Amino acid sequence: MFESRYRFVPLLILYLVLIGIFSQTEYVDDEIRYMMYAERLVEGHYVGDVNNPDLINGPGLPLMLAPFVALDIPIYFIRFTNAFLYYGLLVFMFRILTNYIPERKATVYAYAAGLYPLFLMSVMYEMWPELTCGFLLMGVSYYLLTAVERAEK
Fold it and tell me: How far are the Cα atoms of 15, 54, 113, 123, 126 from residue 117, in angstroms, in the given order?
């Protein structure tokens, strides 16, 4: 099997290839709204009108998009961040699972999650806030679990 740090690189490569092939150059679904919020953040504010704030979305994905918007990077290239978020989510998931099940099973479960068709379609198609949320949730969970384990030793 792959050395631990390279274990999920084939999935990362798959995601990058899928995004490169299937991603579009125009905005899809809610992306225009996330980009609008990211542009507002770059301008120094988040809500449009202070007296009538438009807060349909939280600031998570727009915060992540803001540096790309500030650098005027096209949406086609910004979507490649999906691959790295999904990859990171799977690495954290694997590391959490290895605390409870054998490494081989954890690898199988992480690959199953990484090849789940709904996620694969979402990764290549549009900026997906659930990836940002999932990545952050798995990362925080992993580091909290690690901190608790160290405190118990």
Answer: 12, 33, 9, 10, 14
